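ARCHIVE ENTRY
Sequence with per-residue tokens
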Amino acid sequence: MAKIDEAYHRLKADILAARLAPDTPLAVSMLTRRTGLGWTPLREALSRLEAEGLVVSSPNRGYRVAPVSFDSLRDLQVARQTVEDALLVRSVETGDTDWEGRLVAAHHALSRAPVPRPDRATEDLVLWETRHDAFHAALLSAGDSATLTRFHGQISDQLRRHHRHMLVDPALQSAMDATARTTFDRLLSRMLGLAHHTRLMDAALARDLEGARALLREHIGFSSAVYAFLRELGAGEATAAAPARR
């Protein structure tokens, strides 16, 4: 079991971090070289990842990393909106002072993380992702539903993979001229910057339920605007089958 767990966690981390790019073939020989693990634990790990939607398989192509697309992003956003809205309502209605403290502390930590940019170091991106996820977990932490919280974690993993692809894929970056890059940076600031998270926190702490729900809908929709922009460049869908980054 230990080898299976190791294979699962290593492959999952590489997929979520886009080190294994969307649609990358997951051949036995490649995975064995990459991980140093045997086929049995790798096969079990791939089955678990397929159940989570991070890996797909077909009779003719075998296993490969699940592709990314505007349609899959939109579907994930619908799922995220449904789950987070339910948890947000419960949190705003029932959250106590401990919940308020967790939310404020998570917001402060997020404020100290550099906003992701394609040219930033990987460790900066990881730091922001960790603190961003912690902020949303704190916001929803009074929702008191283990099932919804588990679904939220699975959806967040899938969305992180889409967002990483938009940020770090070389083909996406090379498709931009100076004007497009300025627009892209502006969209990223709107999507990832602290200002909108601050407004969301303030509304939740003020128990402004409808205001918080509206801000959450807007926040979740930001990544669609970024992906739509990339599609206009003719890059968003075309790079889904980019080769794995080592």
